[in-house]
Amino acid sequence: MREFRAPGRVNLIGDHTDYNDGFVLPLALDLECVVRAKPAGRVRVRSLEIAGEIDLPADGSAEPREVDGWGRYAAGVLRVLAERGRPAAGIDATVSSTVPAGSGLSSSAALEVALALALCDAAGFELPPLELALACQEAEQVATGVPCGIMDQLASIAGHAGHALLIDCRELTVDPIPLPPELALIVVHSGMPRELAFSAYAERRADCEAAAARLGLAALRDATPEQVSDDPRARHVVSENARVLEAARALRVGALERLGRLLSQSHASLRNDFEVSTPELDLLAGTLEAAGAYGARLTGAGFGGCVVAIAPQDEAEHVAAKAATNYRRMTDLEPTWHRVRAVDGAGPRA
Q1: Does the predicted TM-score (pTM) go above 0.90?
Q2: What pLDDT was estimated at residue 344?
Q3: CATH 3.30.70.890 correct for 179-340
Q4: Annotated catalytic residue: which of 18, 21, 152, 231?
């Protein structure tokens, strides 16, 4: 029996920029998916949290979208690995996860990566880390139909303990940036889950691609502020890319108040220009800032899920607890919060 772990991710800043060839600043966080597997003839996996189990042929021939529930992700991983030459070797496995589903913390990417590692190990098959991330990105796309970018899977694989990851989604480079020891990262779930397959995610991506085409550009990464000043969707992408690069500079010099302002500006842009926030996410970000956070923003694709905030280390518990209490009182929703750490990326567990 072998164990493989893959962390979720929280994106500090840079949302809806990855599929526009832009910049993102996530980190692999200390919530993870674990797959315990041994060789078998077929791929049989059961979840320790969700009822039922999947049973799939090991050659990747199952059609992912015909598989029920979370099993479609396993079928997607099997399909894309088979297309890359993985031999048809099965596993008998269990999967468990501390990454909350529907939270914007990449629970699906963590599942895909952990399963991919277990399946590759069982078959004696190996892909370089970047190729594995691209395979898992494709697996999500074929499993759900959501045209996701590369950030989630690459952050899960390339995580670096104590560091955020400045990812260039065009060049597919990863630059780890140390997190200052006086900085605390807080993630608060709004109590409103989201499902990307039923959100306007694909519509937003189509808007961005249409804007780039109108400008004669390969992607909005190449647009200037002047070119997109009258297009709110494109304006968000261009301004967000600039904020990501400025946030990386602020992190490098420990300018935490400046970093907080950038997070708040990012949330406003996601709310006003990209229109992926919700009243609950707006309220939660505001209550965190009112409680003493340097800044807060929705994290992930939006439409529900989590808010990320940064605060002084010695005040983080107070900030999170006060904000959660106020948010609960104003909404009757039950927020859950974590102080998170940046951890190393996916791999076998010793």
Answers
A1: yes
A2: 98
A3: yes
A4: 152
